[in-house]
Design goal:
The chain is elongated, with a radius of gyration of 24 Å. The strands form two sheets. Strands 1, 4, 5, 8 and 9 form a five-stranded antiparallel β-sheet that branches. It has a five-stranded antiparallel β-sheet with strand order 2-3-6-7-10. Strand 8 and strand 9 form a beta hairpin. By secondary structure, the protein is α+β, with helices and mostly antiparallel strands. It has three helices and ten strands.
């Protein structure tokens, strides 16, 4: 289950929304989350990923991830009459393919508060002052998953597994690099879910509690879970006698590296779309002729 801290505030250049009753913003928050989820799940998510060249995503970024010694380190040091103190993997994330397939299963406001239209998360708004009614902020829950039949592929280059062993008898510690691979390919299949926080700003439009326009939304603390049975990695040059333990170490490091790039991609998609108002721009109705 994806938990996220949600901040929603109406915003308009040089204007303030009225402070609405609690019952009003409760209804606005509920309908606003439903509108946002519907918009993302009816093509917008996939469309944005393709248009902004975020699927495939090609960060070409190097990471160094600490992993538990139980993944290969203990076995490696034990063979040298020593114990594993630390274990880490250094790798370059070349690209991620398939993020457009992520599905927002649930967005639900659980606590909502009225505001006067001041947004803590965005310096400028996209809402017409004459159209703003209620500003609101709150917290909520959500679920994001990879649907059946879909997968995310991760391409990693220049991976090194580093292990620090310690011999207590000799009172000596040292680092070794028991494994290097020029290329690692990992696939995450359906069943994987993610948890995150989400900050966002919105307002109701034209005195309708069923119409909200968002000017900002951003994930934080994005973390995949339930991936153990869905993640499979293949690395070049893996010794057959240590393959299982070694690949457990690789998969642990991949997940540790994976969350932030995915969060960054999703935020880039949201940020671009929300600059114009989302799902629709909040505008005052046309004056009667």
């Amino acid at each position: 289950m994806l938990r996220f801290a949600v901040l929603v505030a109406a915003l308009a250049a040089g204007a303030r929304a009225q402070l609405c009753a609690q019952s009003s913003v409760d209804a606005a928050g509920k309908s606003g989350m439903a509108l946002l989820q519907y918009a993302l799940d009816t093509g917008t998510w996939e469309k944005l990923a393709k248009e902004k060249n975020l699927d495939p995503y090609e960060p070409n970024e190097t990471f160094e991830i600490s992993i538990p010694c139980k993944y290969f380190g203990s076995t490696f040091c034990g063979a040298q009459a020593s114990k594993c103190k630390k274990s880490k993997v250094k790798m370059t994330l070349k690209d991620i393919l398939g993020l457009a397939s992520l599905h927002v299963d649930k967005l639900e406001a659980t606590e909502v508060h009225p505001t006067d239209g001041t947004c803590s998360y965005s310096e400028s708004g996209n809402l017409d002052a004459a159209a703003i009614n209620c500003g609101y902020e709150g917290v909520g829950d959500a679920e994001v998953s990879l649907p059946a039949g879909k997968q995310i592929q991760v391409d990693v280059r220049n991976m090194e597994l580093r292990v620090q062993c310690r011999n207590t008898v000799l009172n000596k510690s040292w680092w070794e690099t028991p494994f290097k691979s020029s290329k690692v390919t990992c696939t995450m299949g359906s069943g994987a879910q993610a948890d995150a926080n989400l900050n966002f700003c919105a307002a109701t439009c034209n005195e309708s509690l069923l119409s909200s326009s968002f000017s900002h939304a951003a994930f934080s603390d994005f973390t995949f879970s339930n991936y153990d049975d869905t993640l499979q990695c293949d690395a070049s040059g893996v010794p057959s006698d240590v393959s299982d333990k070694l690949m457990e170490a690789v998969e642990s490091a991949i997940i540790g590296m994976f969350d932030k790039p995915v969060q960054d991609i999703l935020n880039k998609m949201l940020d671009k779309e929300l600059k114009g108002g989302f799902p629709t721009k909040c505008e005052a109705p046309a004056s009667p002729q």
